[in-house]
Design brief:
Elements (H helix, E strand, L loop, with lengths): L1 H45 L18 E6 L4 E4 L20 E6 L7 E7 L2 H8 L4 E8 L2 H4 L2 H41 L17 H50 L6 H29 L7 E4 H11 L6 E5 L4 E4 L1 H18 L4 E7 L3 E8 L20 H6 L7 H11 L3 E5 L6 E7 L27
Parallel strand pairs: 7-9
Antiparallel strand pairs: 1-2, 1-5, 3-4, 4-5, 6-8, 9-10, 10-12, 11-12
Helix pairs in contact: 1-4, 5-6, 6-10, 7-8, 8-10
Length: 465
Amino acid sequence: MRTTLCLGGLALLFLAAVGASIDFLVLDRVQAQVFRETQRVAANWLGSLEPGKVPPPVAKSGVYLIQLVDSRGRVVTASTAAAGRPALSGLRPPLDDRMQDRKECPARGSCLMLAAIRVGPLETREIWHGEPHFVYAGRPEPPILATHRLEVVTAAGVVLAAALFAWANWSVAGRSLSRVEAIRATMAEITGSDLSLRVQEPPGHSEYTLLARTANRTLARLEEAVNQQRRFASTTSHELRTPLTGLRTRLEEAMLYPEDVDPRETIRDALSVTHRLETIVDDLLVLARLRDGDPAAHELIDIGALVREEGAALGGAVPVHVLACRDVYVLGNRIQLIRVVDNLLANARRHARRSVEITAARTADLAVVTVSDDGDGVAPEDRERVFERFVRLDEGRHKEPGGTGLGLAISRDIALAHNGTLEIEDSPRGARFVLRLPLTETNKRPSGPGTPQPATRTPSIEEPS
């Protein structure tokens, strides 16, 4: 409505200005044409005057009112239509301006448009012995000038054209906004319990099509996020309910059968379950912070040095062979990157038979950390599942029953928070986890092989480039 009113008002003002200009030009042209004709007829007849001979004027080109009037206002001669009429005008042009135009409007009758010409001094002296005479040639005012018909027609056309502009805008805007209204109505029907509705996409590549497509993509992402939250809530409740149920059972047994239950063992089991619950809650908080995009302080980190430090700090029956290049700098949070490396090393040692290998190198623009083990590996169909929350394969449950199933999920989220990736790639033996992080700008340059710094002696491992 606002657009239609504004456009209609602007169209009315513009067309009114155009119409007024056209009317003025037309009326001015018609008036100028009439005056030219009267001047021409009067001048032609005046040129036919001779001493002793004053021929009666003859009407031409619609100018049929012609009179010759003396200085006292008496009509000397006139055309047939002007005979018997008083002088057409009292206008007396001076010698320095012998030809003038005038519109005479008597009390009764229509207005006359005429030209008044003063007879030249030579003719006046020779014919009338110096008495001034005047020639009047005129015609009634044309209807287009005498009435306001042109203005009325123009005004009606301006109003009609402005109305057509407003109606066209109303129709086009209505059809356009109906698509937006359809999108709004569909969006209004969507509720948190049902996110499956989608907006109908108009054909073509218009802005409305892009809006509907964007709305559908947003709804798809929202639906996926809600489904993930529901799966997460369901899985989390299951993972928390199981240890809580076991803890409640042990405590109830201790209360009901105090003679048959060792209180120290019950307390020890309760502490173990509490520690597991605390670990799960801590991991969930870390995941929540990572998923919410909470900013963490970043600093310049030599990922090669970090890998060497973490690999050398690990003990245990399974040795970790570290081979890392120097000066592989990334921007990141040290605590979070240490957690990724520790999670990958702990996962590899859990599944390895004899040894674990971790390398750190750089390509043209990426820092690459690889953790490999010589275990059974991960099946291709499970390589994405293991990064989901609370997902633990049968082998992992068997080797570490107390695990939370959140380590790899946290590791991938940390990698994504650092604009990197964490994936499982093909390996001739065991599993091969590859972490890629963007190098700093000063470190993004092709380089030759870095100097590896092994944390344990492993002559059989080749140096990474």
